[in-house]
Structure formats: C-alpha cells, structure tokens
Write a structure and sequence with these properties.
heterodimer; A: about 0% helix; globular; B: four-stranded antiparallel sheet
Chain lengths: ~120, ~110
C-alpha cells in the first residue's frame, strides 16, 4: 500500500498520560501535515513540515503538543499530560509540495488516529 | 484568512434521487477548492478539485461540482445517489499562492435511504 499510514488507529488513555502517534507519508512527499477533527467538525490545521523543518504551527497547538519529522520521512505527534478535550481524530496528510503550483497543493490523507481520553 | 460554510449539516435523500450539497467560501485571495468524502472511522478521500479552467468539475463516483466565483460557491451534485454514498462530505479551500493550509467546512452528512 503506497498511501499515508497512521499508527495506532485507536488510542484510549487516562487523563494526564502522554501519548505519541506516528504518520508515514507517501514516499517522496516533501510536505506533511497534522490536523485535528473533533466530533461534528471539519478537520482543523495543527502544523506542517517541509522535509524536516516545521514551518507553521496553529494556535491550536498548545505547549503540551509537539511534532517532529526528524529525517524528513515519518512524523510523530506527542501530546503530554492529556486532557479530555484532546479527545479527537488526529489526521495526517502529505503532499509533493516542493514548489509552487496547483498540483503540489493536493494533500493525501491517512486513516487517522482516534484518541479517547478518559 | 479563509472560511468555508456548508449550509446543511445533514441531507437525507432517497436512493436514486438527485442531491446537491452546498458550499460557500470567503477569501481575500484566490483559492483552489476541494470536496472530500469521509466514511465512518476513515480518513478523507478526495472527490474532486477546482484549480482553474472549466468551472464544472467532474470527480469520482459520479459526483460533480460547479465553481461560481461571483457567488463564491462550490456546490456538489450527483444526479442519482446510492446507499453507498452515505458519508460525511467536506468542502475545503486553500490559497493558490503556495501557503499550504487547507480550511475545511464543518461537513454535511449525506444519508441515503432505500
């Protein structure tokens, strides 16, 4: 399968625990994005990477959230001291994105990681 | 900044009937427009996109959408729906300048019944 993959697909944790999600983008895609989707809402942008550089972070990304893409391939999203309000679907997407132009803005989404904080 | 409004949170329809899901957007810059579909507990799948050229765009699964710049709309249509079209549909925009953040609407749940 050459699509975007995310692990785990589901995570249940207790409030106050730390969790880490992984995203593997489509091979050779330079841009990688994280979105959060809460119930009844559309996805909301969290952050994105161009290769290993984190270029943009939303105000939604509190200091308890950290994302990395150490080698410009896979990415991890860590949430420290989880709160019940963190319960959501976390979506990862990737795009070719090496330069401007219409085709490079198309983002391909993974299946998501559903987080439940008890 | 951009914003997307999907006017209907839920659209019930009978199988083989036509359907239109409405989307309006607001932006101070030119944008590209997208429709995504999300099946339960799955990620988003691109249905179709408008980048430039003809304002009538055809996508997968028999869906099409028409870009209307004067009305800032990008409504999604299908002439005859199937049970399998039951899903959540999201309209999204992105500036065509190179800044890469998609802005989504809140979604429209399409419920197709026999």
């Amino acid at each position: 399968d050459t699509g975007v993959s995310q692990n785990p697909r589901h995570k249940i944790t207790k409030r106050g625990q730390n969790v880490t999600f992984r995203c593997d983008p489509i091979s050779e895609h330079n841009r990688l994005y994280w979105y959060r989707q809460t119930l009844g809402q559309g996805p909301e942008f969290l952050t994105y990477f161009q290769n290993e550089a984190q270029l943009e972070k939303s105000r939604l990304l509190s200091d308890r959230f950290s994302a990395e893409r150490p080698k410009g391939s896979f990415s991890t999203l860590e949430i420290q001291r989880t709160e019940q309000g963190d319960s959501a679907m976390y979506l990862c997407a990737s795009s070719p994105g090496t330069s401007g132009g219409a085709a490079y803005n198309e983002q391909f989404f993974g299946p998501g990681t559903r987080l439940t904080v008890l | 900044a951009q914003s997307v409004t999907q006017l209907d949170s839920q659209v019930p329809v009978f199988e083989e009937a036509p359907v239109e899901l409405r989307c309006n957007y607001s932006s101070s810059v030119s944008v590209y427009l997208f429709w995504y579909v999300q099946y339960p507990n799955q990620g988003l799948q691109l249905l179709l996109k408008y980048l430039s050229g003809s304002t009538l765009v055809k996508g997968i699964n028999g869906f099409e959408a028409e870009f209307n710049k004067s009305q800032t709309s990008f409504h999604l249509r299908k002439p005859s729906v199937h049970i399998s079209d039951t899903a959540e549909y999201f309209c999204a925009v992105i500036p065509n300048s190179g800044y890469s953040t998609l802005t989504f609407g809140k979604g429209t749940m399409l419920l197709v019944s026999p």
